Amino acid sequence: MMIVFKKVVVILLFSIEFSCSSMIDLTQKWIPNAGWEVDCLWTLVENDELQSVRLYNNGQQFFIYRPEINGTSKSEYYRTRAWDVRCRETSEKGVTGACVVSAELIKPPQDFNFTCEVSGERPTFRIETKSILVSASVPPSDAHISVATMDSESGRVTLNCTSSGLPSPTLIWTIGAQRVPPDFSSSAWNYTTKVYDAWSAVSYSWADAGLPATCTPETHRRGRTTPAAPAQYSGARGGAGERDLVALVLAVAALL
Fold first, then answer.
1. Local structure of 68: helix, strand or coil
2. Which CATH class is domain 22-134?
3. What sections of the protein cross the membrane (predicted)?
4. 178 three-class SS
5. At 245, phi and psi to the nearest 5?
6. Do 166 and 190 contact (CB within 8 A), yes or no?
7. Range picked from 60-69, 144-153, 198-207 for highest mean pLDDT
């Protein structure tokens, strides 16, 4: 009976300790044309009060919110890194609340570890800490193909393919089932969309009847490949009739 009683006591003590833990919900999301938003939401144990919230970037504290000093909310903007931090209580005594960090991208980013530490008031000063890796990656956008040049006499067409993402997408060309190297490819950081714009060009002949050209965007990061929806073009669709129509359109355009 004594052994059973000890087990029950241990279980009860564990349950009491577990119920005294605060909760932190730490999430990140990508905001198009801006950057990342990191949200830290907390819930203290019953009858506790908020003492402080501390935020860390790669282990370095850069922000502290203390209701005793700052009241029910605090906001701060960091110009050097273009971070906007807003913390506020959402219930009495700060039992629940949230800190929202909007990290605007002003240059190509790197991964960073973000930590949120929430502390209750005296005498216990219960502290809960949670960290998240904010990964500098945005899935590539679906491919878009456009015709750059078209020669009806030689039956040759030059195609452009574009996609955006982070890191810069690789654009893979295939003619039919055969992978082919691009004639040209490049990318550039877009300061408005906060991602890389990638573009690539390839030329092929209509003599390759029935063989469509396909462009597939991929990003490669930490050994992981993330593809996007491919785009496809076929100058052979409709056979000779379509080629004659293209030639007619070009001839009319030349007369205008």
1. helix
2. mainly beta
3. none
4. strand
5. -65, -45
6. no
7. 60-69
Read off the tokens for 66.
């203390």
Ramachandran class of 161: left when φ > 0, alpha when ψ lies in -120 to 50, beta otherwise: beta
Q: How many residues does the chain have?
A: 256
Query: Which ranges in the chain belong to alpha helices (H)?
Result: 2-19, 67-70, 240-255
* 12 three-class SS: helix
* 54-79 pLDDT per residue, tens: 999 999 999 999 999 999 999 999 99
CA distances from 205 to 142, 151, 160, 199, 220 (A): 25, 9, 15, 21, 31
Alpha-carbon distances, residue 6 vs 12, 14, 18 (angstroms)? 10, 12, 18
Q: What is the pTM of this model?
A: 0.74
Tell me the pLDDT band of 206, cut-offs 50, 70 and 90: low
144-236 has which fold? Immunoglobulin-like (2.60.40)
How far apart are alpha carbons 156 and 176 in whole angstroms? 16
Q: How many whole angstroms separate alpha carbon 21 and alpha carbon 110?
A: 33
Domain boundaries along the sequence of the chain: 22-134, 144-236
The reply to whether domains 22-134 and 144-236 share a CATH topology is yes
